[in-house]
Amino acid sequence: MTVKSENEETIQYSMSRRKFLGAVAAGAAGVSLAGLGFDRLQVYAEQHGDTVRTTVRDGDVYTLCEMCVWRCGVAAKVHNGEIVKLEGNPDHPHSRGKLCPRGQAGLGMTYDPDRVRTPLIRVGKRGEGKFRKVTWEEALDYTAARMQEIKEKYGPEAMIFSTTHNLIQQQFENLMRAYGSPNYGTQRSLCFNAMITANSLTFGLDEPGRDYTNTDYIIYAGRNLMEAISNSETQDLVEALAKGAKVVVLDPRFTKTAARATEWVPVRPGGDLAFFLAMLHEIIENDWYDHEFVENYTVGFDELAQEVHNYTPEWAAQRCDVPAAQIRTIAREFSLAAPRAFAHPNWRTSNFENSFQTERAIAVLNAIVGSWNTPGGLQNATGEGGGIELGSIPQPPYPRTRAMRLDGVPWKYPVVPLKLGIFQNIRDAVLTGKPYQAHGWFVYRQNPLSSIAERRKTLAAFSKLDFIVTIDILMNDTAYYSDVVLPEATYLERYDPLTVVEDRVFLRQPAIEPLFQSKPGLWIFREIGKRLGLGDYFNYESEEDYITKQLSPLPISLAEMKDAGYYEPEKDAGSEEQELTFHTSSGKIELSSSVLKRVGFDPVPHWEEPARPAGNQFYLLTGKVAQHTQFATQNNKYLHDLFSENPAWMHTSAATKRGIENGDWIYVESKVGKVKTQALVTEGIRPDCIFMVAGFGHVSKGLHLAFREGISDSDLHVSYTDPISGSQALSQTFVKVYKA
Amino acid sequence: MTHEYHWGWLIVNYLFLAGVSAGAMATSGLANYLGGRKLENIGRIGAYVAPFPVLIGTGLLIFDLGRPERAWRLFAGVHWTSPMSIGSWLLTGFIVISLLYFLLWLPEKYQRFVRVPHRLKDMRHLRRWRPLNPTQNRQGKLILGGLGLPVSVGVGMYTGVLLGAIPARPFWNTPMVAQLFLFSAMSTGVGSILFIRSLLSEDHGTKAEHMLLNSMDSVLIVFEIFMIIPFLLHQTLSTWSHKEAVQLIMGGQYTLHFWLGVVVLGILTPLGIEIFELWNLVAKKHEPRVHLNLGLVSGGLVIVGGFILRYVFVYAGQVSHFLPHY
Amino acid sequence: MVSCSIENNVPVGHHRNWVHQIGIKGEFPTLGMSFEPGNCMHCDNPPCERVCPVGATYRRDDGIVMIDQDACIGCKYCIEACPYDARYFNEETGTTDKCTACVHRVYKGEEPACVATCIGNARHFGDLNDPKSEVSQLLATNDYYRLYEEAGTGPAIYYIYKGGRKA
């Protein structure tokens, strides 16, 4: 990056044409922070008018990773005030001593030269990249003033609050609720609304656990664990395979998981529903299900049986492109292996509008073979936060929010859980001004400009807003278009609220003091809250005070907690026994959902015909690689070194037909956008599909490595929303491909 | 699979320059030995050429090191299994010998600056160092020329040994590469003398001179051809890795450089010219008819060809690898 | 690879270890893909040691091949000599460098950084002279191969087929 002009007061982000050379030269000249010893850090800081605070401490600091949602335990090795290495904490169940590439590269984010160093207030036009460096005082005063202004003129609901799954979410929600806005945007609807909604309705549980240690049979639809690495779960899968479990992967693409699996099923996108319905058919018609379990723990079996009666494997074969014989075989094997078998709930599965039904089908499939809370099957997992009581801080009750939510929950989408919402609808509501016009957007640790489908629409929505404030670490795309950017300290530099994982309480604590002027979220929210007159909702003096208050019911001090990194309470003798109850309306597993029925949707899993691309069009698939996390890591120099472009996968035959060779420049065009990228010609994908890794194509000139590298799928994706779960159906976008 | 180049232009230039120096020294020594006034010009030109290309080349070599200030470590000992270690010593020896030799060839008027101790005990007393008399000078030339010959062969050959010693680069890893570099080095040395001689002559030079230069170079070129043919043949008939490696000059990215640059320009054309010249000299017994312009051309082409040969070898070699087993 | 680079201060752009992807092979839908991780093979008969003109590269008694960073002159001969392309030139130090089997960790009884973090449980490190070690057991009970054995290098990295399929 050539920061064209940076003086004491302003920053103008720009990018020279010879970006690569410029970046290398800048790095060589000492702008790069990674690997700087403390002395050089001091010099750097002094050159930029900063002071370097003294170190927290040298040695091993046990904390939690934030490079993805898995939040593995990390041992940060600190030497001379610099984090020199990150290793997996052997005592954390999510890492078990290992870290994935992103976890290892975490210090590349802390020491990224593109970190936002001071609070910034925009001076140019949005997207011009011109900001004024200001003090926290000024930035916070300004932010609070604008937020207060919006609240008074338009009501608190005119302010949108959005964030992505993180450990400080409760404080963010605290601010939102205290402020009085109901408009909560999370990224859930871009990912697994369908899964959570389906499982809550079926089992009363967001996401059932999985017992890999004892399982003999697993079916995945997507959930590319070898690339979309969820550390411990990926390790579990590796071990299960090594022990001889049979793993079936439904995926239109030959992913690394598919390569490792016992059987890869190149299913038609959107057709997984037919596959699972046919499995249900087979298992029910052939009487392979667990009668006792169904009898005792489920309701609605007869309705289910009636529904699937016509979903034969032959019927399914044309809809999912899986031969009937293969469906039969898998159904038989699965039921034989059960209950030491499970169909994984997955995350996005096929990402079609019918994915909710697919998730329902998967859920009931597990149920009818009795794969619940037994070795090798789905587990009645409590997930994060359950089981251990943490202290809370007294605060007044929240004001009532009278306004309805912009995203249509629950008035248009009665079944979508409030905590999930429908993110893309918020964006659409800003554009249309219906049911009312929003005027502000508070973004925390999120990049909606890149994550929501149809980026040009999101940009247009921005132009309708009076005030956008983003808290971020890097000048990511959304921050680049904001009015105020507040630099948060990275996860290696701050405390976050305690988190419970399985049977332990874990602490995130700083390994070093926050660099530059960055501040932890706990502090930022409190300061904004105070200025909005909501100080009563933030009754803590400091981060350490907050943690101490959380620790109060537990017999451990903060100092001890910092030393160990976690606390494991004594287990009650009786807590092992878990009654098989389900938090559903009937108290049992709802094969037929009373809630769905009441609202007027199909109560049992039901076939919904997915859209298909026309003759010369392709399904557009997106997914992950092991080296990146969505839109957050493309600028990390270690990860960028390993993976920096996202060419479009296409099948050899499709390429040949269009005169395209491997590496050729091509256009990929959807209804809403067109991008130019390179072709990766391969046998490893269905001929009717195109695939690209998500997260590239950044538009912020503040990301010197990632700017304009690769393409963004948000430029291509059309917004389709599943009417039941609010899930965004990303794979339903169809594209044309031709040579550039 | 793409591979990085770790050795580049600096190394190519060094190999070339060292070769020119080695060839020039050897030719000069030989001319001096064969004797007489008739070959004196060759001796002189060779002596003048010999030290300098290699000095420049060695400078480039040291500059190419990651830590030039540590170059002294090359002389902290000898690592007998490392051609580079042995080569460093050879190179140093060559530089010393060729510099001294050069001094002996300086014109009369400068000989008074060339002083040596006449008696052993005079070594400490610099004032007692005296210039050599003509006989001593002639003897000195013979001795140094004599010593210079094997050292030149060493310098000309060791670079080939250095490359050939690496199984990891199939293009280099053949028995032929050492000799090929040797004969090419000798040839570029002769070529440089031929080139300069053709530039400098007010007179047309003695028949003996031209006979020597043209016949030496032709012979060397023929030997080069006898090196290249088996090189190509046996690379092709060897393992897949070798076969793949030699493809780089048999259809691959360095084909044109090799066949046009080395074979046509550096070998066949000069050979043709030199044979033509020799035929002129031998057939027409009356007067030596020598075309100085042709001498420029053949000498120049030999030098260019030698340079391109080093380029092709250094670069193609680095591309060649064991084939991946998958 | 990230773990190694950070653990050993490897400049971005260079790597001490790697993972080669083999495939995707075959014709849709009958396909295969596998991975071959690697690093310096710490050969029994290292060609790098042989060609070093200053003796900076040496093989320890325990088999680990090291480079004395104070002695290396940066001539890069060893980089050309290595059939595995395991070495790289470090522009910052002006010397050649490579995998050291994380000797500094081995001294403390820890595994090399790559082994410690491998989520696929694909890397194993240990003492082949000890028949009870994990690596000895793995070699005793599985088929294995080594790379470029014909080069006479005697590489110390063994690739085993752990009952999985090879592409």
| Count of helical stretches of chain C | 6
Q: What is the subunit organization of this protein?
A: heterotrimer
Number of domains of chain C: 1
Which percent range fits the helix content of chain A? 25-40%
How many helices of chain A? The count is 26
Which consecutive residue ranges of chain A, at least 5 long each, have pLDDT under 50?
A: 18-55
Our Rg estimate of chain C from Cα atoms comes to: 17 Å
User: What are the low-pLDDT stretches of chain C, counting only 5+ consecutive residues below 50?
Assistant: none
Portion of residues in beta strands of chain C equals 15-25%
Secondary structure class of chain C reads alpha+beta
Q: Report mean pLDDT of chain C, rounded to a whole number.
A: 92
Biggest β-sheet of chain C: count, sense, barrel? 2 strands, antiparallel
CATH architecture of chain C: 2-Layer Sandwich
E-strand count of chain A: 29
Total count of strands of chain C: 8
Major sheet: arrangement of strands of chain A: 1-2-7-6-19-18-17-8-9
Class inferred from helices and paired strands of chain A: alpha/beta
Instruction: Classify the fold: give the CATH topology of chain C.
Output: Alpha-Beta Plaits
* Percent helix of chain C: 10-25%
Quick synopsis:
Chain B is mainly α and 326 residues long. Helices cover 69% and strands 1% of the residues of chain B.
Report what the structure shows.
The complex is a heterotrimer of chains A (740), B (326) and C (167). Chain A has 740 residues and is of the alpha/beta class. Chain A is built from 26 helices and 29 strands. Chain A has a 9-stranded mixed β-sheet. A 6-stranded mixed barrel of chain A has the order 24-28-25-27-26-29. The longest helix of chain A is centred in the first third of the chain and has 19 residues, at 136-154. Chain B has a single domain (9-319), classed as Formate dehydrogenase/DMSO reductase fold (Up-down Bundle). Chain B has helices spanning 9-34, 40-49, 51-64, 83-104, 108-111, 134-164, 176-200, 207-236, 240-246, 255-283, 292-319; strands at residues 115-116, 130-131. With 326 residues, chain B is mostly helical. Chain B is flat. Helix content of chain B is 69%, strand content 1%. The longest helix of chain C has 8 residues, at 134-141. Chain C has 167 residues and is an alpha+beta fold. Chain C is globular. In chain C, the strands form 4 sheets. A two-stranded antiparallel sheet of chain C has the order 1-2. Chain C is built from 6 helices and 8 strands; from the N terminus they run H-E-E-H-E-E-H-E-E-H-H-H-E-E. Classes of the chains: A alpha/beta (740), B mainly alpha (326), C alpha+beta (167). The A-C interface holds A 35, 84-88, 97-101, 104-105, 107, 226, 229, 231, 234-235, 238-239, 241-242, 254, 256, 259-260, 264, 266, 637-639, 641-642, 651, 682-687 and C 1-3, 5-7, 9, 12-13, 23-24, 26-29, 31-34, 113, 116-121, 162-164, 167.
